[in-house]
Amino acid sequence: MVSSLLPSGAPRLGLGLAALGRPGYINLGHGQDLGAAKDQTALEVRTAEVLDAAWSAGLRYFDAARSYGLAEVFLGRWLQARGHQAVVGSKWGYTYVADWQPDAPVHEIKDHRLSTLERQWPETLSALGRQPDVYLIHSATVETGVLDDPAVLGRLAGLAARGVRVGLSTSGPGQAATLRRALAARVDGVQPFSAVQATWNVLEPSAAPALADAHAAGWTVVVKEAVANGRLTARGLTGQGDVPGPLQRMAAEHGVTPDALALSAALAQPWADVVLSGASTTNQLRSNLRALSLPVSHDALQDLAQPAGRYWAERAALSWT
C-alpha cells in the first residue's frame, strides 16, 4: 500500500499537478486562479510555491503525467533544488499538444500503444531526474485494448520487476469495469499491476466496490477529483452547477469550506490510501488541508450520488480555461 511508501506519520493527502503544469485545465475558475501570468516561468514559480506549502504541511505524495504540460519538469526541478525525498507518481498514454495555449482546440491526445510507452518512459525519467515510484497507464479503458496488449503488459511487468509500482488511472462511467479487467491481467501468470488512481467523489462513487477489491488485493489506491473539478467547492455556487445543499449545510455547521468536506468524505473511504488535492493556489491548498482534521459522519452526503453517465457527461462539458 502507499502507506508503506510514505514516511511514518505523513498525511494521506497528496498533491496532483494537473492544474499547475499547464496554462489550461477544466477546473472551475482555473483561468482566474492563474491570472494573466501563464507563461512557463510564472507557472513554475507558482508550482514551487504550492509544492513548498504542501511539503510544509507534511504532504509527501506528488502526482504528475506526461500530458500535464511541464508538471514533471517543474516537480523534478523542485525536488532537486530542495533536496526532498518524496513519493512520486506519474502517468503515460496521453501527449500534451496544446503548445501552451489555454484555448487550444485539443489539449492532449491519447495513445496506449507500446511505442508511446517506449517514448514516454525515458521522457519521464529525464523530466523528473529520477524513476517514479508509481507509474500508471493514463485513463486506461477496456475500449483502448491496452489491458489486453501483451507487449505493453510485458513492458510494464519489466518496470515492476525494477521496483516501480505500475498500474492504471481510470476515468469515465466504465471505471469499475476497467479496473476489474486490470485486476484479472496476468503476464506469465503474474499480476503486473499494483496501483490504481480513480475518480471518486460524493457525486460519482460508482467505482467504490472495485476500488475496495483492489485495496483488498494489496494495490495502492489513489483518489483523484474528489472535489469534482471545482463543482464541490465554494466556486461551484457561481460556476457550472451549484454545490449540493447538504454539502453546503454540513460545511457551514463545521466551519469549513465545501472542498474540505468533500475531501474528508474521500479520506473516510477505508480503501483510499491517498486522496489528491488538485489545488492551483496556496489558499486552495490551505482550505483542502482542513479535510485532515475533520472527523465527521458523511452519511448525509450519500444521497448526492449521480448516475455515472450523467456525471461524466457534465464533466465533459466543462470548459478549458
From TrEMBL:
It comes from the Bacteria. Residues 24-304 form the NADP-dependent oxidoreductase domain. This is Aldo/keto reductase. It comes from Deinococcus hohokamensis.
